[in-house]
Amino acid sequence: MTNKLFDDFIKNKLYNIESEVPKDLFDKIINNKKDKPKAIWWFSTTFLAIAIATIVASGAIIYKNFYNNKLENSAASTINNVFAKEETNTANNINLVKILKPANEVQANNNSHANNNNLYNSLETKNELKIEALETNNFNKTEVKKQTNNSKINKTNFAESINSTHNKKQVEANVNKSFGNIANKNLSKKVNNKTANLLATSSSKNYFSTNVKTKSIGKKHANISEVSTVVLQENGNNIITKKLSIANANISIGNLGIAKVVEANANNIIDKKLLNFTSICPSANGKPRNDLYGEVYFAPDFTSKIITTSLPISQNYLDKKQNTEQSMVGFTIGARVSKNLGEHFLIKAGLQYTQANEKFTYRTENERKQTIVINIKTISRPGIGDTLISDTTVFTQIGYRTQSNVNTYKHFEIPITLAYEFGAKDSKFKYAINGGIIANITSWYEGRTIDTTFALTQIGLKENQGFYQHQFGISFYGAISIIRKINETIDVFAEPYYRYGVNNIKGKIGFNQWFNSTGIQFGVRIKLNKNKHL
Amino acid sequence: LTEQDLISGCIDENRQCQHLLFQQYAGKFMAICLRYANSESEAEDMVQEGFMIIFNKIKTFKNLGPLGAWMRRIIINVALKEVNKKKIHFVDVTNETVPFSQPLESEIYSQMGENDILKLVNSLPQGYKIVFTLFVIEGFSHEEISELIDIQPATSRSQLVKARKMLQEKIIALQKIAV
To answer: What is the pLDDT confidence band of residue A466, given thresholds at 50, 70 and 90?
Structure first.
């Protein structure tokens, strides 16, 4: 017989052969084949939407924060450069005055009671801006009150104006240029040139303080100094009033002194954040914190599972189920961003993957073999006859089948936590207390468990076959962090935590189970907005 | 009920239709799974999983071929998935022709029942059994087998030759006992 004939023979015999099927197999199939509850989809979709909204909102806040900082730094940097140039050219007679006054009490003091003679309005813009030049002698100290809401525009224009100021004409031209872009119809300004006091009024309630740096330069006429004072004043959305005191036309000068606005700090350092409210009124503790971190972390998880039921499910079954499933070490890996809220609080949000593992071991009686041994002995005794002795022994051998595998519960989650961070500012170590929630957005399970008939069943959700039907859940999260500074940008941290799960996995037959876990997150956090403060 | 009615009923998740379909094919599928499984309970698991997939996916059945063949393929895929999980070690042997140790007479085969043959096939080593079943009974080519269970086609060929030889030897041995 050839191979072909042999193969055909086997195929004919076996192709349509049927074997006996367990009677309850169809019921098992039907019981396991249930549609995924719509509520799960609803929860998943909802939480996905919330998660996306949270991420988008966080992104918007972060972007706005970055954008603001960028603008402010850019403008401040321009002004700073301008001031630096001016100082080299004109530093003959410099007086620094600090001013910190409410908005509606603008004053300008003339320490020397100068003989101010001429006040003329030399420049006027289309927007009715008046640039008043105040000629003064010995006018070396001025207190000015300034108000603004639109600090960036003020600062930029101011910088532009100052930047090219080397003579009177240029000043005028630049002032025109500067103000030409600004719609200002309600400018209120009073200048008393005889007393050298400046009074500016505004409807704004905001105020800020500045140092006015006045440089007086005498050239050819030692007793004549030229003062240029810039006053920025709020007017609705747009700005500005600018006062310019320049030299009398009769006096020939080479340079024009310009009043400079500098930061009100002890060292008279020019402030980079000239028009920023918080910067102008710094706290006693220094600059406000403005940190944005990116964090990545890994954590081994030690999970424990709790099963409860309100239904009359056999306690024997629950005990058996728990006995067959033993927790193993799982893990969490994730990334998040954290942003400070004030000096000590940080809000954190991100995305993480968590995998809980458990060892499933189930031993069932597989085979029972009974052996009966009958020993028959015949004892012959003379005169009495033969006696038949029958000795029966029964041996029972039980074969057990042990099935084991690793069940995995995999989750993608969004952790949202609030942290309180403390520790000395320059210390290498900082500490934090964290708390929040972890929202599960999607889950899937793999492995086996036993059903109420103690038969093996798949736990997976794939193809709607799963033993568990609930894939949405929330956990509460609490942790303590120890943060070690590596350098200005990078910190490492260890975060022991406890996580309490709330009803996150639901069995189809009416019980709930959830995981509580402890672990330590090891991670790195990187400062994303390096050295940028408000 | 026609087959089309049965399909429509199953799509509508009609329990009776599902039960009829199950009754019609479960025995055959159990026999198939027994050829791939190590035990009866494992075969049951395969049948159970296979039917759950069938009931869930029957709406995707496009009547391009017989329903039985479509279902059979699903069952075989499920069985092979389990087989692949076990990572069976296929011994790679040279692609040599193994001659029969002794020619067999047709009479010997004709005297054998299906269950006898099934027992003999199941007694083959796992690797031999799977390749032999896929090639001889299910009709897959060696190239298809190589893709299904992730082995080389040459390995499939050699496994088949070995399996065939071993099966024939077992039949001869059985014949001798019978005599």
So the answer is: low
Task: Return the pLDDT at A312.
Answer: 63
- Predicted local confidence at residue A297, as pLDDT: 96
For range A56-73, the mean pLDDT: 61
User: Which distant-in-sequence residues (6+ apart) come within 8 Å of A227 by Cβ?
Assistant: A134, A136, A139, A140, A142, A214, A216, A245, A257, A259
Q: Does A464 touch chain B (CB under 8 A)?
A: yes
Please state, for a pLDDT cut of 90, what percent of chain A lies above it: 14
**Of the spans A57-71, A269-283, A315-329, A337-351, which averages the highest pLDDT?**
A337-351
Averaged over A36-55, what is the pLDDT?
56
Task: List chain A residues with CB under 8 Å of B49.
Answer: 458, 465
d(CA B133, CA A10): 9
Work out the end-to-end distance of chain B between its first and last CA atoms, rounded to an integer number of angstroms: 49
pLDDT digits 0-9 by tens, A170-189 = 444 444 444 444 334 333 33
Residue of B nearest to A5 (CA): B106
Q: Hey, what are A64's tokens?
A: 């706005």
Torsion angles phi and psi, residue A330, rounded to 5: -110, -165
**DSSP for residue A462:** G
A1 vs B: CB within 8 A? yes
DSSP assignments along A304-327, one per residue: EEEEEESS---HHHHHHHHHHEEE
Is the ipTM value over 0.85, yes or no? no
- Residues of B with CB below 8 A from A7's CB? 135-136, 164
Q: What is the pLDDT of residues A113-155, one digit of tens each?
A: 333 333 333 333 333 333 333 333 333 333 333 443 443 434 4
Choose from B13, B48, B164 for mutation: most chain A CBs within 10 A.
Answer: B48
Nearest CA among A508, A363, A401, A32 for reference residue B48: A32
Residues in contact with A46: Cβ distance below 8 Å, sequence separation at least 6, in sequence order: none
CB A224: neighbour CB atoms within 10 A? Answer: 20
- Residue B170, SS3? helix
**Distance from chain centroid for Cα A253:** 56
Closest CA to A352 of A212, A500, A481, A475: A475
Are the beta carbons of A199 and A145 closer than 8 angstroms? no
Residue A220 has pLDDT above 50, yes or no: no
Interchain contact A33–B (C-beta under 8 A) = yes
SS3 A89: helix
Residue A215 DSSP SS3:
strand
Confidence bin at A336 (pLDDT 50/70/90): very high
Cα angle at B118 between B112 and B121, to 5 degrees?
110
Distances (CA, A) of A346 to A128, A387, A418, A428: 48, 97, 6, 19
Q: Which residues pair with A506 in a beta bridge?
A: A512
Nearest to A14 among B27, B103, B121 (CB): B121
Cβ contact A247:A221 at 8 Å: no
Nearest CA in chain B to A30: B52
Q: Which among A10, A400, A403 is the top mutation candidate for probing chain B, defined by the most B β-carbons within 10 Å of its own β-carbon?
A: A10
Q: Is A229 in contact with A256 (CB distance < 8 Å)? A: no
CA gyration radius for chain B?
A: 18
CA-atom Rg of chain A in angstroms: 42
Tell me the pLDDT tens digit for each residue of A520-530.
999 999 988 76
Looking at residue B149, what is its pLDDT? 83
Distance CA A159, CA A142 (A): 20
Q: Name the phi and psi angles at A460, rounded to 5.
A: -65, 150
CB A104 within 8 A of CB A93: no
Residue of A nearest to B168 (CA): A6
